[in-house]
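User: Fold this one for me? It's ABC-type Co2+ transport system permease component-like protein.
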Amino acid sequence: MSHIHVPDGIIPAIWWVSGYVGTCIVIYFIMKSLDKEEVRQKIPFTGIAAAIMLIGMSVPLVIVPLHLSLAVLTGILIGPKLGFLAVFVVNLILALFGHGGITIVGLNTLVIGSEVAIGFYLFRYLSNNYHKVTSTVIATVVALVVSMTLMVSFVAITADVTEALPHHHAEGVTQEVTYEDDSSTQYGEGLQQEIASMRYFMFSGWIAVLLILLGGIALEATGTALIVRYFLKVRPDLILSPAEKV
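Assistant: Here's what I get for ABC-type Co2+ transport system permease component-like protein.
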């Protein structure tokens, strides 16, 4: 849900270059700290998690104009380090297919990578006191709220905040506004027009945006929780912490 879809040429070079630099720094420290034995064991699951993320982020949901990221699930299954690397690969592949610009890969990796890390650590903390499915739901909701806030902040600072609004056309969703001057969308007037044009079934404006976001968060949290519940039945070792496996 927190994937930025701004095309190339919109965000100033200083910002997207900084995104790549930040991503490369994180990857460097991850590579330096990875345990080779752990990597060997989790490489197959890393590929699977990346493939699931790629599918989820490529296919818009039917009932809300958003798509899943399954980043928290990735963090829970393979940890925040390998999860961050998987996020980078997935974002690069999506950019090559035109799902967002090449220049935005760095920023996208930082945003969704934060979702992986927050989801993982919050899940581990909560699962000490609550059921793992409940912990998954809470961790997913919190991670999504944080990553979406980062996404909107990045886009608002660097380009056009309207790019962060729900954009896929889905049943019940229409956007009917046109602009004589595209530059107006960079400011408050353009944002107000964009939001006012949003239609989601019988709702419009901010209510439509809020319902779309809440619906997306609910679907992502529910889907992640159901998958974790399934793994707890068939492969609990993928979910349990090292201390719980002893």
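One thing worth pointing out: The longest helix spans residues 205-234.
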